[in-house]
Design a protein that fits this description.
The protein has no helices and 11 strands. It has 124 residues and is an all-beta fold. Strands 2, 4, 5, 6, 9, 10 and 11 form a 7-stranded mixed sheet that branches.
């Protein structure tokens, strides 16, 4: 069992930056692929980024490529999402997720545990 708690959300102006954190419980954090997803009002939840258990492989949605960076610190049981050049369309609730799998994935069905989410609002 893994429990995930996101933090770092807030209100930021367009062009600004935020860093989200996701703290995981449990001693097996390093065995999980980690992902970030987001859900904007009235829209389906969508993939943002994923990282392999070692941190050696990352994968991004086209909409955030070049602006967002996912990373993890297995010693701290934490995964991060550094967001830069934020746009109003990045406004959403951001969720982290953990999956017991080998490779990174953008499929929500491949993730077994989810956090409660943190709100990110980008003003124009």
């Amino acid at each position: 069992q893994v429990q995930l708690v996101e933090s770092g959300g807030g209100l930021v102006q367009a062009g600004g930056s935020l860093r989200l954190s996701c703290a995981a419980s449990g001693r097996t954090f390093r065995r999980y692929v980690m992902g970030w997803f987001r859900q904007a009002p009235g829209k389906e939840r969508e993939f943002v980024a994923a990282i392999s258990w070692s941190g050696g492989t990352t994968y991004y949605a086209d909409s955030v490529k070049g602006r967002f960076t996912i990373s993890r610190d297995n010693a701290k049981n934490t995964v991060y999402l550094q967001m830069s050049s934020l746009k109003p369309e990045d406004t959403a609730v951001y969720f982290c997720a953990a999956g017991r799998r080998v490779g990174v994935s953008d499929d929500q069905g491949d993730y077994d545990y989810w956090g409660q989410g943190t709100q990110v609002t980008v003003s124009s």
